[in-house]
Each structure stands twice: as structure tokens, then as C-alpha cells.
Design goal:
Order of helices and strands: HEEHHHH
Number of helices: 5
Shape: elongated
Distance between the termini: 32 Å
């Protein structure tokens, strides 16, 4: 079962707003929330298939291109999503 389905089965939800993701915990236990935090990248990839491409593009723009992290993330989002 995908991670996102397990979260939803316990009343939780991962909400994507552009390239930002947040979680409503629902009735997830503190242990489950800790697990989600430890595996957040996997959760993001499960919710947003382009996540890894976006993350890589943002890192290159930040470290090679010299952009701030916020600028790099925004530019990578526009590039990856074609907007």
C-alpha cells in the first residue's frame, strides 16, 4: 500500500500547494507522525511524481547557479511543471 494511502486510512492528508507540502495528521499516532517525518522525501515522491526531478533541479540552481534556496525552488518548479 502506498504511503499516502496509509496516511489517508488514518484520517491524515498530505496537501500539495505548488512545491510546498504539508500534512494534516488526522488520527495518526505520535509514532506514525515520527515515521512520516523520517520518510518525508518518500511521502513527497508518492504525492508528487515530479518531486525528485524538482528537488534535483532546485539543488543545481542553488549550488551551481548561485540562487537562494527560495529562488531555486520557485525556478525549478516553473521548469519542471512547464509554467
Amino acid at each position: 500500500m502506498p504511503i499516502i494511502e496509509r496516511i489517508r486510512a488514518h484520517g491524515g492528508e498530505v496537501i500539495r500547494d505548488g512545491y510546498r507540502l504539508r500534512m494534516r495528521k488526522g488520527s495518526l499516532t505520535p509514532e506514525a507522525i515520527a515515521w512520516v517525518r523520517e520518510h518525508w522525501r518518500e511521502v513527497c515522491a508518492d504525492v508528487w511524481p515530479e518531486f525528485e526531478e524538482w528537488e534535483h533541479d532546485a539543488a543545481v540552481r542553488e549550488y551551481v547557479g548561485g540562487l537562494s534556496r527560495d529562488e531555486a525552488e520557485a525556478a525549478a518548479y516553473r521548469s519542471v511543471m512547464g509554467c
